[in-house]
Amino acid sequence: MDNTQEVILKKVCKIYDNLSSIENLNPSNDVNDLFTQLVTTCTTSCNEFDVTKLPQEIKEKIAKLITLCGKAEGLLESHYSTIIGTHEKPLNHIKTFPYYPNYLKLTHLEFTMLTKHITQKPSKLAFIGSGPLPLTSIMLATYYLTQTCFHNYDIDPLANSKAYDLISSHQDLSKRMFFHTNNIFYVKNVLKDYNVVFLAALVGMDKKEKTKVINHLAKYMADGAILVVRSAYGARAFLYPIVDPCCDLKGFEVLSIFHPIDEVINSVIVARKCSVNQEVYLKSKCCEVEGFINPLNHGNVIEELSIDEKA
């Protein structure tokens, strides 16, 4: 580990110690400042940082930090969803969410990657782990997939209720966006109905659970359907769990991978559900995919887009 990486690790560990001492991770000046420091540290550092090679005790601390990040992100989204939902036309105020620009770029990136591997836009798709502020689904439905029905799955009924409140008054989205309160492991045969499935970064907060979710999707998704997975790379892996495209996507053919170098945090992996015969063939090719980076330029994109509410 070089000096730069040591400095990054010390900063991250100090932030973790400060965060773990806070009982309430609801948005506040202290919590917001610490997470701003953490995000800045992790997104302005070199992508060569490999957290998988750190000592075991540091890995355990990272796992706890990722859990804290996931909890805080859920509370942040719930907080802003409640505020935005109080307006007569909630979607006109969605830009007040502080990470809105990041989601705008990430969604544009994911759609651009997706369209390279589909022949036509899906009639309906599933988003697993949509949460109380389903920005990705809203942006995709508004800007890119304007005829697609979105089936959003979340285990938390309150999250789904808040999410529905955001789109219930919108003439178009209220007819195309649906919210299902389910543990994804109980969602089985219906998964074959979706041409595209998005898996949120916070579904499966550790390696074992993430792999279990992906294996479930591999079992029940239709052959040829597309899975879009959010992962992390480099120092960004202090914030979100890593999905290893070579080891963790059994049953899928990895089509493209993108690792961001700007303020966007999540890496994106696009994969296609294999048939049994394809799985046998791909086992010998798996390691050829590892490390591939899709050179997609997602710089200043759609910054001026706004959601046009209809009465």
TrEMBL record:
GO terms for biological process: nicotianamine biosynthetic process. The keyword Transferase applies. Its EC number is 2.5.1.43. PROSITE patterns: NAS. Keywords: S-adenosyl-L-methionine, Transferase. It catalyses: 3 S-adenosyl-L-methionine = nicotianamine + 3 S-methyl-5'-thioadenosine + 3 H(+). Synthesizes nicotianamine, a polyamine which serves as a sensor for the physiological iron status within the plant, and/or might be involved in the transport of iron. This is Nicotianamine synthase. The lineage of its organism: Eukaryota, Viridiplantae, Streptophyta, Embryophyta, Tracheophyta.
